[in-house]
Protein backbone atom coordinates (compact mmCIF):
# COMPACT_ATOMS: atom_id res chain seq x y z
CA UNK A 1 0.00 0.00 0.00
CA UNK A 2 1.37 3.37 -0.97
CA UNK A 3 0.19 6.86 -0.17
CA UNK A 4 -0.96 9.48 -2.66
CA UNK A 5 1.61 11.00 -5.03
CA UNK A 6 3.68 13.82 -3.61
CA UNK A 7 5.35 16.65 -5.46
CA UNK A 8 8.94 17.18 -4.39
CA UNK A 9 11.48 19.84 -5.29
CA UNK A 10 14.49 18.63 -7.29
CA UNK A 11 16.46 21.88 -7.39
CA UNK A 12 16.62 24.89 -9.65
CA UNK A 13 16.16 24.36 -13.38
CA UNK A 14 19.39 26.25 -14.16
CA UNK A 15 21.28 23.74 -12.00
CA UNK A 16 20.12 20.96 -14.32
CA UNK A 17 21.56 21.92 -17.71
CA UNK A 18 21.10 19.82 -20.84
CA UNK A 19 23.01 16.55 -20.67
CA UNK A 20 22.96 16.20 -16.89
CA UNK A 21 21.34 13.63 -14.61
CA UNK A 22 21.23 13.68 -10.84
CA UNK A 23 19.83 11.54 -8.06
CA UNK A 24 16.74 12.61 -6.12
CA UNK A 25 15.80 10.66 -3.01
CA UNK A 26 12.22 11.30 -2.00
CA UNK A 27 9.20 9.45 -0.62
CA UNK A 28 11.29 6.32 -0.13
CA UNK A 29 12.35 6.21 -3.77
CA UNK A 30 15.50 6.90 -5.72
CA UNK A 31 14.78 8.88 -8.87
CA UNK A 32 17.09 9.86 -11.72
CA UNK A 33 16.17 13.43 -12.69
CA UNK A 34 17.71 14.83 -15.82
CA UNK A 35 17.67 17.14 -18.78
CA UNK A 36 17.86 15.51 -22.21
CA UNK A 37 18.43 18.40 -24.60
CA UNK A 38 15.87 20.58 -22.85
CA UNK A 39 13.41 17.79 -22.02
CA UNK A 40 13.27 17.34 -18.26
CA UNK A 41 12.55 13.80 -17.10
CA UNK A 42 12.38 11.69 -13.97
CA UNK A 43 12.82 7.91 -14.05
CA UNK A 44 13.20 5.32 -11.36
CA UNK A 45 16.91 5.17 -10.59
CA UNK A 46 17.24 1.39 -10.45
CA UNK A 47 18.16 -0.32 -13.72
CA UNK A 48 16.00 -3.37 -14.45
CA UNK A 49 19.03 -5.45 -15.38
CA UNK A 50 21.08 -5.64 -12.19
CA UNK A 51 20.18 -2.53 -10.27
CA UNK A 52 22.70 -0.05 -11.60
CA UNK A 53 22.06 3.59 -10.73
CA UNK A 54 20.65 5.35 -13.78
CA UNK A 55 21.49 8.70 -12.16
CA UNK A 56 25.12 7.71 -12.72
CA UNK A 57 24.45 6.95 -16.37
CA UNK A 58 24.91 9.20 -19.35
CA UNK A 59 22.59 10.71 -21.90
CA UNK A 60 22.67 9.93 -25.61
CA UNK A 61 20.03 12.29 -26.99
CA UNK A 62 16.78 11.26 -25.30
CA UNK A 63 18.20 7.92 -24.21
CA UNK A 64 19.56 7.33 -20.70
CA UNK A 65 22.30 4.70 -20.69
CA UNK A 66 22.97 2.61 -17.59
CA UNK A 67 26.64 2.84 -16.55
CA UNK A 68 26.87 -0.85 -15.67
CA UNK A 69 26.14 -2.79 -18.87
CA UNK A 70 24.73 -0.11 -21.18
CA UNK A 71 21.02 -0.92 -21.12
CA UNK A 72 19.29 2.01 -22.79
CA UNK A 73 16.07 3.67 -21.64
CA UNK A 74 13.87 6.18 -23.47
CA UNK A 75 13.62 9.18 -21.12
CA UNK A 76 10.11 9.96 -22.43
CA UNK A 77 8.60 6.68 -21.28
CA UNK A 78 11.16 4.77 -19.22
CA UNK A 79 10.98 1.91 -21.74
CA UNK A 80 14.05 -0.10 -22.51
CA UNK A 81 15.07 0.30 -26.14
CA UNK A 82 14.56 -2.91 -28.09
CA UNK A 83 12.44 -4.40 -25.30
CA UNK A 84 9.51 -1.99 -24.81
CA UNK A 85 7.72 -4.39 -22.47
CA UNK A 86 10.33 -3.52 -19.88
CA UNK A 87 10.21 -0.05 -18.37
CA UNK A 88 11.37 1.77 -15.29
CA UNK A 89 8.78 4.03 -13.67
CA UNK A 90 8.51 7.49 -15.14
CA UNK A 91 7.38 10.44 -13.03
CA UNK A 92 5.83 13.77 -14.11
CA UNK A 93 8.12 16.80 -14.03
CA UNK A 94 7.24 20.47 -14.20
CA UNK A 95 9.00 23.76 -13.55
CA UNK A 96 7.38 26.42 -11.38
CA UNK A 97 9.19 29.72 -10.85
CA UNK A 98 12.46 28.08 -11.89
CA UNK A 99 12.07 25.17 -9.47
CA UNK A 100 12.00 21.61 -10.85
CA UNK A 101 9.14 19.65 -9.27
CA UNK A 102 8.76 15.89 -9.57
CA UNK A 103 5.58 14.03 -8.67
CA UNK A 104 6.56 10.76 -7.01
CA UNK A 105 4.39 7.88 -5.90
CA UNK A 106 5.67 6.95 -2.43
CA UNK A 107 7.35 3.58 -2.10
CA UNK A 108 5.47 0.95 -0.11
CA UNK A 109 6.78 0.53 3.43
CA UNK A 110 9.46 -2.14 3.77
CA UNK A 111 8.18 -5.56 4.83
CA UNK A 112 9.16 -6.83 8.24
CA UNK A 113 11.02 -10.12 8.65
CA UNK A 114 7.81 -11.55 10.11
CA UNK A 115 5.85 -10.67 6.94
CA UNK A 116 8.60 -12.06 4.71
CA UNK A 117 8.75 -15.35 6.63
CA UNK A 118 4.97 -15.72 6.72
CA UNK A 119 4.76 -15.16 2.95
CA UNK A 120 7.53 -17.70 2.44
CA UNK A 121 5.71 -20.24 4.64
CA UNK A 122 2.45 -19.68 2.71
CA UNK A 123 4.24 -20.25 -0.60
CA UNK A 124 5.66 -23.49 0.78
CA UNK A 125 2.23 -24.81 1.81
CA UNK A 126 0.63 -23.80 -1.49
CA UNK A 127 2.70 -26.36 -3.41
S1 LIG B 1 22.74 -2.97 -14.28
FE1 LIG B 1 22.06 -1.61 -15.81
S2 LIG B 1 22.65 -2.58 -17.62
FE2 LIG B 1 23.26 -3.98 -16.10
How would you characterize the overall build of this protein?
The chain is mainly beta. The protein has a single domain (6-125), classed as Rieske Iron-sulfur Protein (3-layer Sandwich). Helices cover 10% and strands 43% of the residues. It contains 1 helix and 11 strands; from the N terminus they run βββββββββββα. It has one helix at 113-125; strands at 6-12, 20-26, 29-36, 39-44, 58-60, 63-65, 72-74, 79-80, 83-87, 93-96, 99-104. Strands 1-11-10 form a 3-stranded antiparallel β-sheet, with no helix packed on it. Strands 2-3-4 form a 3-stranded antiparallel β-sheet, with no helix packed on it. A 3-stranded antiparallel β-sheet has the order 5-6-7, with no helix packed on it. β6 (63-65) and β7 form a beta hairpin. The two termini are 27 Å apart. Bound molecules: FE2/S2 (inorganic) cluster. FE2/S2 (inorganic) cluster (FES) is lined by residues 47, 49-52, 66, 68-71. FE2/S2 (inorganic) cluster binds next to loops.
Amino acid sequence: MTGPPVEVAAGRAEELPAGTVRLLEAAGRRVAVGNAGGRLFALDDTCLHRGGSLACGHLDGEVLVCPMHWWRYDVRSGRRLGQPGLAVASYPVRVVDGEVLVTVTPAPPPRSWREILLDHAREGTAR
